[in-house]
Structure formats: structure tokens, C-alpha cells
What we know:
Elements: H1 9-22, H2 24-37, H3 46-62, H4 70-87, H5 93-112, H6 120-152, H7 157-178
Helix pairs in contact: 1-2, 1-6, 2-4, 2-6, 2-7, 3-5, 3-6, 4-5, 4-7
Amino acid sequence: MGGVTPSTLVEGLLSGIGHPIIGIDHLVFVIGIGLAASFLSRGLAMPGFFVGATLLGTGIHLMAFSLPFVEVVISASVLLLGVMIFVKRSQPLAIWASLFVVAGIFHGYAYGEAIIGAEATPLVSYLAGFAIIQYLIAGAAFLIAVKAQDVVEAKPVGTRLAGSFVAGVGFVFLFTAVAPF
């Protein structure tokens, strides 16, 4: 949208679909949620925690509340998720859900920047767009990870490697957020 606030239903929807995709840190986190969900007991229900929290985070931004260190927390959440996927220890489901909710609030807060000042129709379509695309991306990552684990019939080395990639992206973004050049 080039920094322009969406003014129609279609603009809102396209902006909502695009925001989680063009932000590499957001995209990698959403893919990571799907990977993590592939070995969690609640499976595809887990991305719902994140998606719901992103809606809440956007609402917080739209109500003009300020959250501190948004980019640092987002970057740290990507790094932490990657490490948790890589080590794949059996953390309680509540730990995973807490990460998804806290991260979702901050990711959603960042999403809110693109829709400040929009009227109701583009705002609702923006929220629907980013909620739907995030769940679809996480769901696709989940299905790919489950199928890959079924095909390999061995330890999920691929999931661990993907976790290290997620952690690496998080590290780069975190380093950039705390030590700008």
C-alpha cells in the first residue's frame, strides 16, 4: 500500500493478507508456529492462540495504548520460538501457548500501524485478511511438517533444522533491533 491507509474493503483485505507475508520476521514466526504445532498435542488449535492474540494486539494499537520495545520483543520471540523448536524438549503446552499469545500481542501491535485511521470496512477486512492468511500459513507449515515426519519415519531432523533457521532469523532481527547501524 506504500504507506497509504486502506480505504476500501479490497484494499483492507489485500493489506491484511500482505502484512504478515512481506514482514520476514512475521512470516518466519508464523511458519515456526506451524512447525511447533506439528509436535504439540493440540496441533492446529495452537496457531489459534497466536492469531487471536494478533487481533488483540492490533486492537491495543488502535486504542492508542503503547507497548514498549515492540521490535525487540518481536525479534526475541522469533529467536525463542526457533530455539524451542530446535531443542524440542517437552515444555508444557501452557509455555507454548503463552509464547504464542505474548508474541501475538506484539506482532499484532506492529500490524496495527498499517491500519490506523481507517474506517470500519477496510479495518474489518484488514483484520480478516491477516487472521486468515496467518492461520493458512501456519496450517500449511503444520501439514508439511507432519507429512515430512511421516515420510522420513525417523527423528524429525528437518523440524530441528527449520527451528535453527527460525532462530537464526530471530537473531538477525534482534541484533538489528538492539544495535542499529
